[in-house]
Amino acid sequence: MSRVAIVTASDSGIGKATAVALAEAGCDVGVTWHEDEAGATGTVEEIEGLGRRAELRRLDLTQLPEAAGVIDELADALGGLDVLVNNAGTGVSAPFLEQSFDQWRHVLDINLSGAFLCSQRAARRMVGSGRGGRIVNVTSVHEHVPLEGAAAYCASKGGLGLLTKVMALELAEHGVTVNAVAPGEIATPMTGQHDEDPTKKDRPGIPLGRPGDAREIAHAIVHLASPEASYTTGASFVVDGGLLLMAAMANAMS
Question: Against a cut of 0.85, is the pTM above it?
Fold first, then answer.
């Protein structure tokens, strides 16, 4: 029987790369989009081109808690659920002293509350099936380190990192593993780089000297979603080209 995965915000960037990589690994995939329906349709076509089934739904995480019902819709349509990848996210750049509550709530709803509700729906199904499962939360290096002007984003990603650990503790007895992947700068539309070749960009502040490719994040997620990752839970895997190492470098040079 085919494994079933759902990847939120799989219309472009990391989400699209992950959905396609999971299909390559033998999964049928539920695809969601918020604004870019054409991009999501392209993801579905790629999945079907690999001989896997795909289902498409719109997911608007500003409409909580009802929006999380899309997880159940996709699981019903695909005949089960083995893997959930919480990839949907957003951010706002604003100084802390000027951050509006509406901005704060918008980011927290999508990045943290949305992931909580989607994970809850998925985990209930995984526990009920008795087959276990995999949940992977896409956070950020800013799960671990702050970024000036990004109070809401950092709070949401830090919160999602600890939610990952609590979920891992509580779901372990049911054979459900929960992990986070924390990307650094990745060449995607969210960072203003519309699927550009990261090897052509110079980043002297990153030890590997370039941004990452969405497919490099996807491969990490696919491993954590695989049966082979059955003894890995509650961890946060930083995939950042060595960016976080530069804090030690800056301190040594000061």
Answer: yes
